[in-house]
Amino acid sequence: MNRRRAFCHFGLVFLLPMAGLFGCSSEKSAQPGTKVEKTVSKGSKGVICVSVMNLTNPFFKTIGDTITQEATKIGMETIVVSAEMDPARQSNQVKDFIVKKAAAIVLCPRDATAIGPAVLEAHAAGIPVFTADTGCTDPKAKAVVTCHIATDNLDGGRLAGKAMIEAMDGKPGKIAILDYPEAESCILRVKGFEEVIGEHNTKNATKAIQIVRKLNGQGLPEPSARIMEDILQGVPDLSAVFCINDPSALGCRAALEKATKTAILIIGFDGQKEGKQAIKEGKVYADPIQFPDRIAQITVESIQKYRNGEKLPKEILIPTGLYRKADGAKDPELN
Questions:
Q1: pLDDT tens digits for range 96-110
Q2: Around 308, how many Cα atoms within 13 Å sit in the side-chain half-sphere?
Q3: Residue 116 in 3-state DSSP?
Q4: CA–CA gap between residue 280 and residue 274 (Å, rounded)
Q5: 287 closest CA partner among 298, 274, 296
Q6: Tell me, what's the pLDDT at 35?
Q7: Which CATH architecture has domain 153-289+324-334?
Q8: Which DSSP string do the residues of 227-276 spell out, in sequence order?
Q9: pLDDT in tens, 241-272
Q10: Is residue 130 within 8 Å of residue 304, measured between CB atoms?
Q11: What are the percentages of helix, strand and coil residues in the chain, rounded to 5?
Q12: Beta-bridge partner residues of 211
């Protein structure tokens, strides 16, 4: 494919080739979300079908690529597709996985509630469904998900709150949150963040950190940049922003640079390479970092255990770690 996609980074535009984004093994190229015809190879132990929110996000690309690599080690094949941030497209992808008689389905739901009927449909077809990174909040569907493997997003949100208090250095101020309420993982991050900020304000009434705006940046650079511009118009004395992921933080940073308000602090979440580089350069204060490769590895391990008849926990959570400028200075990935 020759199509190319624009990606916003600190106000600049980079072109990322769409070819190769799927991270799939043994499958024909396809537009994201379209049907992929695949014949299972002789001797294969089955196909793991994966649908992530958006493969232009490095976090989800790492999940797709790592699942593919790990599946190969246990003799399984993969189909990895992008929902392109479209809940309806993702639901249709699940229907396609059912037709293909997937051995297991892995979902990073674009919409935690809307994915429910598709999960129930797969379960009714006898296909185990695993959620990775983001979960399903539809009660009936959540009950039939075989296992949810994710970052401990609630605790990560608490770390982000502690980083915000640290960054504010004991001073009061007004802050904003760029959230993404359609994703269960982001709901938990914001909940943990607000919990810590609330506790701080209760103990330090004269140094209260006021959350004056909470708006949906969609977890993407361009929408986050636009929302940040609007926030700056309404809150000219803003002190800091918490963004629920690195793409949102990078879009926020681009808007602050455009408005020459680079003194406003940013707390991100993810630990993608671009986010780490921004922290190293002092453009983002800190990130609770997560490990998408580990999420993917444990997901494949869980699929194998399930197929071997082992009982799985309903949820496996992976702790985050707080990444600051000093960590960026000694990070071999950035050198």
A1: 999 999 999 999 999
A2: 9
A3: helix
A4: 10
A5: 274
A6: 47
A7: 3-Layer(aba) Sandwich (3.40)
A8: HHHHHHHH-TTEEEEEESSHHHHHHHHHHHHHTT-TTSEEE--B--HHHH
A9: 999 999 999 999 999 999 999 999 999 999 99
A10: no
A11: 40, 20, 35
A12: 175
DSSP character at residue 286? B
Rounded Cα–Cα distance for residues 137 and 119 (Å): 11
> Strands (DSSP E) along the chain, which ranges?
4-9, 12-17, 47-52, 77-82, 104-107, 129-132, 147-151, 173-179, 209-216, 238-243, 265-267, 287-289, 315-318, 321-323
Tokens of 134: 């983001």
Helix (H) or strand (E) holding 221: helix 221-234
Cβ neighbourhood burial of 156 (10 Å; 0-12, 13-18, 19+):
buried
* DSSP H stretches of helix in 24-136: 58-73, 87-99, 116-124
What number does CATH give the domain 4-150+291-320?
3.40.50.2300
- Averaged pLDDT, 65-75: 97
Q: What backbone torsions phi and psi does residue 284 show, to the nearest 5 degrees?
A: -130, 140
Residues of the chain with CATH 3.40.50.2300: 4-150+291-320, 153-289+324-334
The two tokens of residue 287 are 């990130």
109/132 Cα distance (integer angstroms): 8
User: Using CA atoms, how far apart are residues 79 and 28, in angstroms rounded to an integer?
Assistant: 10
Question: Nearest 5 degrees, angle CA 176-CA 178-CA 183?
Answer: 145
| Token couple for 105 | 């389905």
Residue 66's nearest CA partner among 246, 303, 294, 317 is 294
Q: Could you give the CA distance from residue 99 to residue 92 in angstroms, rounded to a whole number?
A: 11
3-class SS of residue 218: coil
Rounded Cα gap, residues 241 and 228, in angstroms: 9
166-187 residues labelled b (16+ CB within 10 A) or e (exposed): ebbeeeebbbbbbbbebbbbbb
